[in-house]
Structures are given as C-alpha cells and as structure tokens.
C-alpha cells in the first residue's frame, strides 16, 4: 500500500470516527440535559469581557462562578442587593447546580429587596419572584436537594403565612386570588382537576400544573394525610412542598441528611398548627373579602404530625412534645368554644392520658387533667389573665364573645354562634357564683339579658351599628324587626341566667331565649 492510499484511508477512518463520536456526543448531551446534569446557557446582559471569558475558558465556568460568588457575597454584606441579583443570575446560568446561589437569590427577593418598597403591591411582586425562582427554575435543575424544598416551603409558611411583614394580609389575599383562578372561585375540588372533563376544568388543571408546578394527584394525597386543607391559603402550599421533599427523600434514602428531614417535618406540623388556628376561609359578601376561621377538622392529623416529628428528631423530642401539648390544649378550648363538645371531651381525655402530670393551665401545676373538668378548663382559659373580681374585664370578655357570636350568625356560622354564646353564658355563671354575697351590690354583673341586649342594640343601631345589609341579615336571623332609629332606653332588667344552648337548638330560638 503506497503512502497516498494509506493517507487517504487514515483520513477516511478519522472522519468516520469523528462522525461517530459527534453522534454519540449528541446522544450523551441529550441524556445529560434530560436528567438535569448540565446546562450551558448563554449569559444575558453580561459585560463583553465576562461573556468572552466564559466562552474561551469553557470547562472553567466553575472557576468564573466562584469568582462571581465572592463578589456577590461582598455586595450582600454591603446591602447592595440589586447589584447582587444580576451577579447571582449569571452564576446560576454558569453553574445551575450551585444550590446556595438559588437559595440566596430567592431569600433576597422575598425578604431583603421586597421590604425596601413602601408600596405593598411592589413588595408582592418581589415575593412572587422569589417563589418563582425556586419553583420554576431552581427545582428544575436541583430536584434532588431537600434545601430547595425547605426554602420554598418556608417562604409560603413564614413570608406569606405569618404576620411579621406589614403587607402580609395583601400577600394572603393575592395568593388566594391566584388559587381562586385554579379552583374556579369556589371550595377547592381536587378530583375535577385530576380528571378534568369540561374545557374550563382542563384549563384550570393546566394552569395548576404549568404555572404553579403543582400536581393535583399528589395534592390529594397530601390532603388525605394532613387535611382537609384550605388550598387557597399559603400554609397548604408550604405543606405540599415540604411533603414533596419528604417523598423524594423516601425514594433516595442514601442521598439525604437527617437534619434536612427534620426541617421538613417541622414545617409540616407548624403549618398544621397555623391552619388549625385560621385555616378556613369564610366568604364575607358584605365586606367583599374572606374572613379567617379555625380549621377544627385537622386536630387528629396535626397530632400525628407532631408525634412523627418527635419520632424523627430525638434531640428535640422534648420541645416537640411540649409544642404538641400546647396545641392539644388549644384544640380542646377551640372545639369547646365551637360547641363541638364531644370532640373537645375526646381530646381533653387524650391530653390527660398522654400528659397526666402536667397542669392544663399555665403556671398552675396543680391543675392536672384528672382534677379539672373540661368546663372548668374552658372557662379558666378565658379568665387566665383576668382577676376573678375584675368586673369590667369579665364583662368585656362576655361582650366580645357575644359580638363574635352574632357576627358568626350573620355569616351562617351557626355552630360558632352557639359555641361562643354558650361560653359567654358559662363565664357569666362562673363569675356570679364566685362573687361574695356581701359584694353583690359592688361587683355583680348586670343581668345577662341586659348585656346581650346591649350587644344586639349596638349591632342593629342604624347609625353606629353594622352596614345595612348585614344588619338586615342579623335582624332576620333573630326574627326581630329592625329598629327605625337609635334607642337610648334600656330593656327591662331580668335576673334570670339562660341555660346554655345546644347544637339542636335553632340559632333564632337560642337568641330569643335570653330576651
């Protein structure tokens, strides 16, 4: 074989090998991109020198990102968050698996940058940007990092759910508005989003999956385990993302850190506690907004979450169980105040069984569950910070309970109306029974009927009372005519104290029984 033929053969072989290598590289790049192992994106709005250096160095992109990260940290220390954001954007383009940069970016958007604006709508846009960064981009390239799930859940739990930011109510309302677009401005129905049939259901299911990156099938599993949850409130989303992290951890047990699991469990039981306190949306057509009410249906699920967290976190077990005890004490009181007496009795018994040697009232170790009845405990909870002979404060508590009871009646919360009214009656009776006969004239309360009537008069007053529509609803519920003008005359006093009403008594009859 002469040299010319040999050279030609070698060139053809080299070309064939290069072609085969290029085809294999295309396949490898496709698989790497599919698995999220790499991303080579062009930097946008980068200085020419940085863009040139990135292309020239190629595999040294990590070195460039480290240099940029050092610069970004210095900017953050100087409170120059806006300048830091652009650097962080370039870093995530260079190294999308640099998790700490995603976390810092989202935190700065939702917390440090948002509060620099006085306008609440501007703040909300930055909080949204922090959520979107983690949910839409960060998790896309780092689905196997529990810190990403924890940070996203934390923003929902703390920034939107808590009240430390002055704009927190706007955040809650805006998130409820967003979710209303998903659920059709009605009580969430996950089944119709799992198997959408109508064009509207298909549109809303697509919105949930594509925009909010939430899977209705997994949402239903979360709801069955921890709910029923109100998916229009941020706590439900926090529980969703924490649960998604726990699911991934269960599938990859060798790739997790114990402390990260504990953090996710903590998010769940803390959000369940918050949902228990105000995890129910009540439509208020008169004010054209939602009111918050307790979600009393999740007591058992929340208790399970506390106990699961205590099982996972041996080091913090004592504190978690203390938190569970406090939660159960609140649960008993809330259920009692809502006239769900059977459930209140069940959990009071459970509280006494699990924590038999702890007083049920703060600072009073002698108030063991075996020595204090459910009724005594519920009344004492209201009076914990009130001296027994402080007539004005007791009267203010009774008036507050009656006012909230009537507001619940207006919004068709009949159970809440009965519970708060009964509690007001019990507090009245307890106080009156403890007033010494020698002090009756000085510190005795007015007749209960007079207190009750004064609250009705105040709410139904056409000048200083409720707005016309809720005022008319209340009068209709009480089956009494609307007063044509403010009245200054007090009704005839009566010394009778009404018996507590029951859930079998219609609200209108219960109201008339104290006239």
Outline the fold blueprint.
Blueprint: H1 3-35, H2 48-57, H3 61-77, H4 81-94, H5 99-113, H6 120-141, H7 146-160, H8 168-183, H9 191-194, H10 199-211, H11 216-226, H12 234-251, H13 258-278, E1 280-284, E2 289-293, H14 299-312, H15 317-337, H16 341-354, H17 374-383, H18 391-410, H19 414-434, H20 440-443, H21 448-460, H22 468-478, H23 507-512
Antiparallel strand pairs: 1-2
SSE string, helices as H and strands as E: HHHHHHHHHHHHHEEHHHHHHHHHH
Radius of gyration: 31 Å
The main sheet comes to: 2 strands, antiparallel
Helix content: 55-70%
Class based on secondary structure composition and strand pairing: mainly alpha
Could you report the average pLDDT, rounded to the nearest whole number? 80
Q: What portion of the residues fall into strands of 2 or more residues?
A: under 5%
Strand order of the largest sheet: 1-2
Assign an overall shape.
elongated
Spatial gap, N to C terminus: 120 Å
**Low-pLDDT residue intervals, each spanning 5 or more residues:** 39-43, 490-495, 503-515
Multimeric state of these chains?
A: single chain
Number of domains: 3
Number of helices: 23
